[in-house]
Amino acid sequence: MEKADVVIIGSGYGGSIPAYRMAKDGRKVVVLERGKRMETSDFQHSDDPKYVNSVLELLVASNNAALRVGRLVGGASINMDGGCFRLPAHSYTAKDKSGRPYWPESITKEVLAPYYDEAEKVMKIRQMEWNEIPKSGGLFADIFAKAGHKVDRARMNYTDCIHCGYCSVGCRFAKKQSLILNYIPMAEKLGAEFRSECFVDHMKPDGTGFVVHYKKGEEAKEIRGDLVFLAAGGLHSPAVLHRSSNYLDKLPLHVGKHLNFNGESAYIMILPEDYGGLDEYFCYMGMENAGMMCFSPFEDEGFTFHPGGGMEPTMFAAALSGTDDPELPKRTWGLEFKRFVEKVYPHRVFAFSSLGLAEGISEVEKSNNSDTKVSINMTPAYEAYLDRMDLFLDDVAKKSGCKIISAMPRRLHGMTTAHHLSSNRMGSSKDNSVVSPDGYVWNYPNLFCCDASALPYALGVNPALTISANALRVCDYVQKNR
After folding, report:
1. Over the stretch 93-119, which tens digit does the pLDDT of each residue have?
2. Domain boundaries, the chain
3. Are residues 293 and 137 in contact, defined by beta-carbon separation less than 8 angstroms?
4. Parallel, antiparallel, or unpaired for β 29-32 and 193-195?
5. What is the CA radius of gyration of the chain?
6. What is the per-residue DSSP string for 26-81?
């Protein structure tokens, strides 16, 4: 049987960073990634469904929402829009209904700070300059300022972006610092091996280590690791544990539960006809994250906003199906809809998103086969969270003279997010979590999980940088104790 010191399942932030750190520590590291490998020169400027499906997985949940998941070596870093924020101070203090803090008390702003520093340096994360902000970012800032809310430039991992507008399907110009440009080649230089198109079915305990069973094409394979890092993401990591539960009979009861979409919702803003300076603005151009962020309502309301780009007319179809606004078309086809789109597109519309401190309303369930099964169940508390956001945006619309509509009806909630958190959440006790504060799965001290699934709660900002910092923190623990 093949053996390695460390076997890592998944190559996103929670997998590639441990691969580098463990290889740097002199250990034999093998990374198993279910997706294929593409280099920057392989990426295409294309919205062709076949190409998009090759770089993004769409996993359909119980409410028919299609959840977006990275499916290449490098994980979600290939597809993310570039926003990289540290966990806001307010997020550390979030508590559940019983008053229990979500974040273990041992993980503080001060503890994570040096790990944030390291990740920011490697991935070249910085605050954008004003002359790098696309027109949509300026419009977003102006509109929210009219409503009395401060907006500032985002921190991102872009360098000399040329604003082509294809961020989420792979940056072919290497302007976005995805993992294939930093931690992965750094790990490979130290001897780590990344194996693509390897689907992990399950793992079995073997002494103090684990045997990982996977398929390469149709060929069944296995590899033993003294240590295993589970880093397949918020949807697939709990699915691997579910498939392994016949062999890992001491898994915590919370595996797959509390799946959290980071409170994300998407919106479309329609600017008034007399709004000036729109002739040079095209909603489909520029970075897909328009480089701005509004934290103004975060402490009081628990949500943030950021503008997007790359918007196509087809987005109107879902948005209009969820509104009864008398000024908008009553259907998403026919001459009325066509004339509406011609009137507002491409100069008077742009998309933006919200993130916030909201409860998890979803679960990765056990499946009878190798599929990942996700159920989404709206709760009164989550409805109330969305209602508060709607009231806030109604006020922004009223004060700015714009019209704001949800990009998706509530029955398809989850469709617009790529943030899948907390399904193997970290906590202070095995009674309320899956992963210990030190990063190992409760009852299995040599099985670690430090990807998005391990984050204990919504963050209110893009999770990529916090996943990275937490992975570095867990690696420090492993290097000192294993």
Report:
1. 999 988 999 999 999 999 999 999 999
2. 1-80+85-122+178-262+359-370+418-482, 128-170+264-356+379-412
3. no
4. parallel
5. 22
6. T--EEEE-SSB---GGG--S---HHHHHHHEEEEE-TTS-EEEEE-BTTGGGGT--
Question: Do the Cβ atoms of 351 and 143 come closer than 8 Å?
Answer: no
CA–CA separation, 43 vs 319, rounded Å? 29
Neighbours of 5 (CB within 10 A): 17
Q: Which two tokens stand for residue 326?
A: 């008398």
The DSSP element (H or E) to which 266 belongs, if any, is strand 265-270
User: CA torsion, points 426, 428, 429, 432, in degrees to nearest 10?
Assistant: -50
Of 64, 9, 106, 2, the residue nearest 448 (C-alpha): 9
Q: Please spell the DSSP secondary structure of 187-255, one letter per residue.
A: HHHTT-EEE-SEEEEEEEEETTEEEEEEEETTEEEEEEEEEEEE-SHHHHHHHHHHHHTTT-TT--TTT
1-80+85-122+178-262+359-370+418-482 belongs to CATH 3.30.1330.60: no
DSSP letter for each residue of 142-167 = HHHHHTT---EEPEESBSS----S-G
Nearest alpha-carbon partner for 102 in 354, 360, 477, 389 = 360
**Whole-number percent of the chain with pLDDT over 90:** 75
Q: Are 252 and 434 in contact (CB under 8 A)?
A: yes
**Cβ neighbours of residue 92 under 8 Å, at least 6 residues apart?**
101, 103, 107, 108, 109
Distance from first CA to last CA of the chain, Å, rounded? 22
Beta strands in 318-372 (DSSP E): 349-356, 362-365
| Identity of the amino acid at 408 | M
Statement: the pTM of the whole predicted model exceeds 0.70? yes
> Cα–chain-centroid distance for residue 466?
11
What backbone torsions phi and psi does residue 98 show, to the nearest 5 degrees?
A: -85, -5
CATH fold of 128-170+264-356+379-412, please? Cholesterol Oxidase; domain 2 (3.30.410)
Q: Which residue has the higher pLDDT, 307 or 214?
A: 214
Cα–Cα distance for residue pair 69/451, rounded to 1 Å:
13
Are 140 and 149 a contacting pair, CB within 8 Å? Answer: no
Rounded to an integer, what is the distance from CA 35 to the centroid of its chain?
A: 17
> Which band of pLDDT confidence, cut at 50, 70 and 90, is reported for residue 276?
confident
Residue 374's nearest CA partner among 55, 12, 68, 34 is 68
Which SS3 state, helix, strand or coil, does residue 370 take? coil
